[in-house]
Amino acid sequence: MEGGGQYNAHASAQAASATLGVELFRAAATSAPVGPAGAVTVADYGASEGRNSLAPLSAAVEAVRAARGEDQPVWVFHTDLPDNDFASLFHTVAEDPGSYRRPGVYTAAVGRSFYEQLLPDASLGLGWSSIAVHWLREVPGPLDGFWASTATAEQHDVWARAGAADWSAFLTARAAEMLPGARLVVVVGAAHGQGRARRSGAERAMDEVARGLQDLVDRGIVTDAERAAMTIPAWYRTEAEWEAPFTAGGDLVLEQLRFVDLGDPLWQQTGGEGYADTVAAALRVSFGPSLLQGLDPERRSAVAAELFDGHLARAIAAQAPEPWFAWRLAIMGIARRSD
Ligand SMILES: C[S@@+](CC[C@H](N)C(=O)[O-])C[C@H]1O[C@@H](n2cnc3c(N)ncnc32)[C@H](O)[C@@H]1O
After folding, report:
1. N or C: which end of the chain has fewer CB within 10 A?
2. What is the DSSP letter of 32?
3. Which of 6, 19, 53, 80 to mutate to test the pocket of ligand 1 (most atoms within 8 A of CB)?
């Protein structure tokens, strides 16, 4: 994600998505078991700059304290990749009026992939992850284009296998960290459709970004080789793929899985006013860093500005005013067996 406060400023669609998991998270918090040092340990997997985590974490802290008393210590671990802008995250937790910060609630961060175990065995009381586990560990293999909907049949199979392995690895790591009876709530983008016909709901915008890249190649701003190397490792899973790792007798139980067709949060939030620029900034902060990571760092922000704030915003503004996205969310409540 783009740092420097940019993700926080332009991630209102993700904020709207997270809201749908808050009540489930609040309910899970009421029975969160106490871990090391007498604290309820809470982890936020894929936190980015943190603003969208504040509302769910505030709800969880309130629920933990309503159940266990106002003095109950709570230890919050925000986790993300090492290059995440953790400075913005710590400022957000310290200064945002919506912060969960209060006496006896402690903040820490882990800069390591959530496909590994991040906390000691049986230490976690409560986990949250919002709009993060559609990011694969790495680009699984070649793709005809930069967005998975352009995959050939063979490429689709390779990506689907990687998607299955990564979701299993994520859950295996969480199962080790969770205390018996602990719960994990995951809110994440899910696929419309099945197999190769799967769609994320962002294809119209991604097709326009592809046209923008072609324009940058034609103008000599990006080379053909640079464009060919661009791939976004995002994978939108089907119901069967989300359910697959939960087997009878396994450590984790999928207590709840529901899907919500959210439509286009940015259209709903803007009412169409300034929609093109809002979409361009949202895509730039969320996908720009991954798409353009192969470019020299000094060219990256200029290319991102041309591609998203320039081409994409102009293309959206030039077409009929209407929503461009169809967000589909999977909302999961997962428990660590206590027997
Ligand atoms: C779209 S942001 C979501 C941020 C926030 N949870 C929200 O709801 O707005 C996805 C975050 O997941 C992080 N992420 C992606 N892959 C990851 C991995 N393997 N390990 C940890 N974090 C990862 C990204 O760096 C990014 O900050």
Report:
1. C
2. P
3. 80
Domain 6-336: CATH superfamily is Vaccinia Virus protein VP39 (3.40.50.150)
| Each residue's pLDDT tens digit, 274-304 | 999 999 999 999 999 999 999 998 899 999 9
Compute how many other C-beta atoms are within 10 angstroms of the C-beta atom of residue 75: 22
**Per-residue pLDDT reduced to its tens digit, 308-339:** 999 999 999 999 999 999 999 999 999 999 87
| Distant-in-sequence contacts of 317-325, Cβ < 8 A, 24+ apart | 317/276, 321/272, 321/275, 322/267, 323/263, 323/264, 323/267, 324/204, 324/205, 324/264, 324/267, 324/279, 325/13, 325/201, 325/202, 325/204, 325/205, 325/263, 325/264, 325/265, 325/266, 325/267, 325/279
Residue 279: CB within 6 Å of ligand 1?
no
Please answer whether residues 213 and 230 qualify as being in contact, where contact means their C-beta atoms are separated by less than 8 angstroms. Answer: yes
First to last CA, the chain: 39
Integer Cα distance of 2 and 10 in angstroms: 10
